[in-house]
């Protein structure tokens, strides 16, 4: 999509009047900047309240939760909540399920999407743009539109409550967005590269695996991270397809814990914290990919 | 991007280079592309397109959803029922519309404000950006649980502040229990979740603002607001389109937050179409009704998405 070709704003070309005004206004500028900084600090404080609230509660004993205001720090941290959460909710089992699903879904899904994007962006056949459009449209339709019949399909395949039974639909529902992003990325690679590779006798597969894919590593990395997080967090498909408690993923386990132990606020918050921990670590380690991923989606898309 | 310089039909051009290219093109074609496309197309057809078509088909039948149970063709009866006899459908529809409209204003404006503020050099800028973005990576169902706890009428934020500042009315608010308020309480969690994502998108868009243009406008004596309106904002237009489309799509999809915070209650006042369709199919075993609602949702989505796709395709062709 031609979003990177932003027409320059119509600004009359100004005669160069070097620096006079900038220096004049700098005192006022600092003042504004300090005010802005304080406003942002305040906003960030508001923004982190839910997280602070959750962490505090997870470390309080029941007596402290009911006896002290919620934003008073837990002076006597009660780590037992974490033990209790691990004990009562099947966090480890759910974590293992989520991990297995993500470990298979993410690379396979990316490879399939990349292959499709390669065909759509680098090979030539009729109606390929239309096909790209039809695939991209899948990224915009809510999953819930197809979820009841999807349940029937998976039941027909006898795959309810299995890893494969969610990995397959996850791959399918991830395809449209990933293919779309890859398509944009592949199209930005100069055609001359293909031409010279073909001159050297490379076929389509070699072109794809040895040239186009390695050139797209930044986009692949960004999509990998984003997709890992999205898979880890997915709830509605899992809710429909994973019926037995043994097969639950993390989001189902959170919801299960919350409906089973409604008023165990300490363990519940400890459970939630532990469940978001892997994603937070991934986020903090690969932060720049999130920005790049958004950037790729927004500008290259 | 339209960076590919190869014309779609190389044979129409002349010269030896084009002939060379035509020879290569003949190696491709749909048959050559098929092995690359087949896995994606198969998965897409079986698990996405197939179920969508099936959901339209089932919407014309009455069915409990149990395998072996009879499917009885009833024509438009399910639609007549959802439009005339199902008050929850109208609540869900209007809630979905309210959600979309509010999302187009509050989180978009917030994201834009944060992006503009954090686009200039500031101490701790990256830390600010990260903190605002963090909610976007958390599982919505986890967010729902956090906020449910904050809204707890006895020990939550409202109750605590009410005690601290001696404001009894604040402590009495039933954030998720009040039929008129609950939807907006959930919406607040949604704003918290997605404002950071919008900020990142707008930040990406702001990189396309040419600094020289801002300098030039400053030298011409333009005020900060004039610069924003006449220089920054036009440059942000493409990203704004994307943010708007993403916002609409994400708003129509909202499901996890509502399941996790109210389950659609109290008295179904926080139902939305996506959840009501799910509830009818799986909770009430009304597959026909559930899929009729899903079909309505599909049509609404297509009405929004298709013009956008056509528009972008045209943009691409023009550039």
Comma- or semicolon-separated keywords:
heterodimer, A: mainly alpha, MetI-like fold, 15 helices, 73% helix, disordered N terminus, B: 319 residues, two-stranded antiparallel ribbon
Low-confidence runs of at least 5 consecutive residues of chain A: 1-25
Number of domains of chain B: 1
Q: Could you tell me the strand content of chain B as a percent range?
A: under 5%
Please name the CATH topology of the domain at 95-248 and 277-300 in chain A: MetI-like fold
Helix/strand/pairing category of chain A = mainly alpha
Largest interface: A-B, 124 and 128 residues
Q: What is the rounded Rg of chain A?
A: 25 Å
Q: What would you call the shape of chain B?
A: globular
Outline the structure in words.
The complex is a heterodimer of chains A (301) and B (319). Chain A has a domain at 95-248 and 277-300: Orthogonal Bundle (MetI-like fold), CATH 1.10.3720.10. Chain A has helices at 20-24, 26-58, 62-67, 80-88, 91-122, 128-137, 147-156, 163-187, 191-199, 204-215, 217-233, 236-241, 250-260, 265-285, 287-300. In chain A, helix 5 (91-122) runs parallel beside helix 8 (163-187). Helices cover 73% and strands 0% of the residues of chain A. The longest helix of chain A is centred in the first third of the chain and has 33 residues, at 26-58. With 301 residues, chain A is mainly α. Chain B has one domain (85-318): Orthogonal Bundle (MetI-like fold), CATH 1.10.3720. Chain B contains 14 helices and two strands.
């Amino acid at each position: 999509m031609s979003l990177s070709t932003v027409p320059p704003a119509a600004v009359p070309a100004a005669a160069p009047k070097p620096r006079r005004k900038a220096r004049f206004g700098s005192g006022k500028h600092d003042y504004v900047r300090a005010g802005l900084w304080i406003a942002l600090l305040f906003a960030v404080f508001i923004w982190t309240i839910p997280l602070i609230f959750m962490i505090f509660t997870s470390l309080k004993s029941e007596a402290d939760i009911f006896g002290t205001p919620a934003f008073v720090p837990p002076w006597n941290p009660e780590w037992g909540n974490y033990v209790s959460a691990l004990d009562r909710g099947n966090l480890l089992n759910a974590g293992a399920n989520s991990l297995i699903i993500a470990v298979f879904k993410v690379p396979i899904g990316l490879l399939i999407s990349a292959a499709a994007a390669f065909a759509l962006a680098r090979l030539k056949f009729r109606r390929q743009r239309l096909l790209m459009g039809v695939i991209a449209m899948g990224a915009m339709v809510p999953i819930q539109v197809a979820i009841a019949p999807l349940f029937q399909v998976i039941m027909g395949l006898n795959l309810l409550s299995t890893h494969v039974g969610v990995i397959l639909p996850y791959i399918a529902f991830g395809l449209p967005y990933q293919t779309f992003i890859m398509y944009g990325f592949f199209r930005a690679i100069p055609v001359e590269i293909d031409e010279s590779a073909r001159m050297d006798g490379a076929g389509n597969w070699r072109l794809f695996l040895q040239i186009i894919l390695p050139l797209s590593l930044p986009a692949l990395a960004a999509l990998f991270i984003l997709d890992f997080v999205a898979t880890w967090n997915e709830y509605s498909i899992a809710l429909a397809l994973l019926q037995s408690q043994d097969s639950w993923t993390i989001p189902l386990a959170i919801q299960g814990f919350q409906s089973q132990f409604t008023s165990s606020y300490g363990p519940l918050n400890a459970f939630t914290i532990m469940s978001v921990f892997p994603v937070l670590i991934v986020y903090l380690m690969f932060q720049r990919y999130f920005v790049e991923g958004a950037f790729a989606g927004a500008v290259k898309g | 991007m339209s960076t590919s310089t190869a014309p779609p039909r190389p044979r129409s051009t002349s010269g030896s280079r084009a002939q060379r290219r035509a020879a290569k093109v003949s190696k491709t074609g749909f048959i050559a592309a098929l092995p690359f496309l087949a896995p994606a197309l198969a998965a897409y057809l079986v698990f996405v397109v197939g179920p969508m078509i099936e959901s339209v088909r089932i919407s014309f039948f009455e069915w409990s959803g149990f395998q072996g149970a009879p499917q009885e063709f009833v024509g438009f009866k399910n639609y007549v029922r959802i439009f005339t006899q199902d008050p929850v459908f109208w609540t869900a529809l209007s809630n979905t519309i309210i959600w979309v409209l509010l999302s187009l204003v509050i989180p978009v404006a917030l994201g834009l404000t944060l992006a503009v503020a954090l686009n200039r050099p500031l101490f701790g800028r990256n830390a600010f950006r990260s903190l605002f973005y963090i909610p976007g990576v958390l599982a919505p169902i986890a967010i729902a649980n956090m906020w449910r706890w904050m809204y707890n009428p006895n020990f939550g934020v409202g109750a605590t502040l009410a005690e601290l500042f001696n404001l009894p009315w604040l402590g009495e608010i039933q954030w998720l229990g009040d039929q008129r308020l609950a939807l907006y309480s959930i919406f607040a969690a949604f704003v918290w979740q997605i404002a950071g994502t919008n900020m990142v998108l707008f930040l990406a868009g702001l990189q396309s603002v040419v600094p020289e243009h801002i300098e030039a406008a400053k030298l011409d004596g333009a005020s900060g607001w004039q610069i924003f309106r006449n220089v920054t904002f036009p440059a942000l237009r493409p990203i704004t389109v994307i943010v708007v489309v993403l916002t609409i799509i994400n708003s129509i999809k909202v499901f996890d937050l509502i399941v996790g915070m109210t389950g659609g209650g109290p008295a179904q006042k926080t139902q939305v179409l996506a959840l009501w369709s799910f509830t009818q199919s799986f909770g009430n075993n009304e597959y026909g009704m559930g899929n009729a609602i899903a079909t309505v949702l599909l049509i609404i989505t297509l009405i929004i998405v298709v013009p956008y796709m056509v528009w972008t395709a045209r943009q691409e062709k023009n550039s």
